[in-house]
Fold this sequence. Notes:
By secondary structure, this protein is α/β, with parallel strands linked by helices. The chain contains 39 helices and 13 strands. The strands form four sheets. A four-stranded parallel sheet has the order 1-8-2-6. The N terminus is likely disordered.
Amino acid sequence: MTAMQEGTFSALRTQLQEAAEEFAGGPDALQDILLGLVDDVDRALREPLEIFPVCHHSPASALAMARRLREKQPKVVYLELCEDLAPLLAELRNCKLPVALQAFATDVEGFPADWSPLSVVAPVTEASAEYQAISYALQTPGVELVLVDRSCDHVFQWDAAGPAPAEPTDPDAPPAEEEAALHGDAVGLGLGDLRPRFAELEEHLLRHGRVRHWSEWWHQYVELPLGDSDHDTYRQVMFLIGSLFRRLAPGDPHRVRVDEDRERYMWTRMREHLAASGADPADCLYVCGAFHAASRVAEFGVHGADTFEIGPPSGSTWQYGLIPSSHAAIEAQFGLAAGSVSIAATTWAKHVKRSGIKPFRLAGQAGTRPSRSRKATAAPPAPAAPPTDKLTGFLRRPPVLDRLDETELLGWSVEIVRAARRNGYLASTADAIAVFETSILLAGMRDRAKPTPYDFQDAAVTCIEKDSVPGRRDVRRLVEIMMGGDRVGQVGYEALPPLARDVFDRLAPLNLKLQQRGVQRALLDIASRPELERCSDTLWILRYLMPQGAVRPIMGERRLGERPIQESWDLALGTHQRALIELGYEGVSIEQVLEQRLRRTAYDPRATAATVLAAVEDATLYLRSRRLADELGTRALEVLASERSVDGAPEVLRRVRRLLAYYRTSEPVLPPWIESFAKTGYAHYCTLLPSAFTDEDATVRQVAATLGFLFSMESLALSLGCDRNQLELAVAQSHPADPSKTALLWAAQVQLGRLSREELRRRCDDLLANPLVVPAYPRYLSGFVHALEPVPGLSDVVVEAVSNAFARLPDHVLLPWLPTLVTTLRSGAADLAPLLIREAGRIFPGRLAALDAWVPPWREQRPTAVALAAPGPAGPRGAALLAAHPAACDALAGLLGCEGTWETPDAGPGGAALLGRHPATAEALGELLAEL
């Protein structure tokens, strides 16, 4: 028997050796490669454990698999798939294909932190050999299915470069739609990745095959010829292709090592199972990719060397589940041409119908029709026959030319024109005729008797598509949809993780089919149906956790201290089923997932006080958890004390004000953490204030928010034991050089009583009167606008300053500043603009007719309290009465013993001389009385 097996391919070896000598002029590397290909095929065929080579998502492989399973009826099926995915296979009966087996890890140990989360997916379609093997094993009693490939943890252990991005797709393909992102950034695992790793070889095959991309070459020269071949021919051809691509692969040491380690891993697992179960290798079937079937490692075969040691898994925590997949997602994952998987599904349906082979399907699976035929009694497996040379006949056989099916092609042409009209194209019957004739012409130019779907696609694009695409989809995409469409799978309710099932149970009162794809509108009248408030809480949490578009509020909002009355939502949970399933890998309820994410955000080493306060607000808003809010609030206090700048002051001020207002209205006493936050923040920002005024990196908005925190928290901080002198000293030590910060400092001095409002107005007037300072005056105004944050009572002064700027600034200064003013009010001070508008509405006249006669109040003469004039030569005023009647004064002087003489009226001011020499005191008193 051994001698006969060794001579199976002797004739083929002789022919290849003669061809190599003729083409190369003698023995060389070409002869070694050609003979090595035959040796690989011969070695794989002589293995006692039957090896079944496949290519992922190949209709020919699926058809050959279904045929071989019914003939051989193996008792053990070894499958090249991650061994830790085995528990998921039984859940495929609760899904609608295509779906993907997924392993997901967020708690990563032993891997770099930037790799997290780790995700691995293995798509499964009906037109795939692995689905036929899985269905056979699960549906047939007494059959054991064993997954033998490395675990998902080892996938990343052996990949030193980390998760690699997907291979680029066809550059002529249209932009990917949302279905192409169903797998996210997961690492894709496919059973049998057959594609040349030698770029020059792929280019040579595409050029001589007159095709545009690899998927078209495989369909034309492998799928179609192998679709009608027998089992032996299929195996030998696939062994040959796998060996060819393997021997011509570039020598990337890391990739070669990983491939060989995977083969050692799989053969080690199979030998372990054979030894433990006592199964006969003749009753087993090993399903693997053709690339790994032609292996040359020492561990190959049931009698191979047992020298490979499987390392332990890392400490990462893995979660497993099923996620929806689609044809577009599979194409994007594995770098296939757009529409190739849909065409493969159509080809699979034709093969099944033409051959009459009954494929294996899981009973009760969604999307499949139950068979009405009676179950046929399985025939006993035929005895294994020695392998014969099928390669020689296959390689010599000329290509089979399928005759043109005019009815099918005409139906395609009519259907694509109808689809183009629905999508906005100005297509007509003449275009259908043109597509029909062009398809035949292109097939003839490419040496094909029958146009393939790729020929028809090129013809449709040429004849129908014009300069622009009127709708969402172009003609190439329309052809893909027409050929089978981007079929999107769905995970059934029973196969969902507990979190996803809990979400659908909570939203059941909405009476919507939330597992269907598409957008559905949900109306929640909570006032009349209070039980819908629980649905509202669930939707708000989902909006926080899931990607944009999955749950979108149309009407209604969630604020601290408010209860919902009516809400309207757009829900697309069926479309974003993958994201919902992956939430189930993080916890058993959405509340637990949200709490974990909030803690992760708060305790992140890069967290700021503002981000932690945001987590406190979210915990209060969505979870209504006082316990978690207090814990995160204490964390916010720690983070604030460690900050050395005021970069986050605006956000800190906004959130702490909101939280403080909420607690004051809803709680009998303030939580201890927020009191400590106010006390610590007061001292902290007082310390940072002088440096913030002089720091060039600190913006005026950040400094204004710092002052706003100090002034708004002052009463609470002082009641908790803080000292106001600390704030006064911080302001006194501040010496800014920037004009906007200088204006901000003046506003702070007004708030502290160190600068009067009249003095502030006088300083503004002095700035406008100084021609050297006029170009910088708009920057002072920007500071005054931001000063409304800490000192909102200065709104009248700011309106006056802005009005004076419009009245007195020259055009070359005013006009360039106007865009800056508008930008400042819109972005940096959007919440301050209403103060200015309200104050301007109070000052300016309400009617246009009154504007001409209107005089601004700051231009009116301000009355003084005491009008003091210097005494003139007219004589004394206050002593006039005494000079006219001196008798009373003389009598009083005599009584007191005083002697003196009377002055004449022309002698001078008398008692008013002191006021004349020192008028400043009287003037200051007059101004003070005027302000009162």
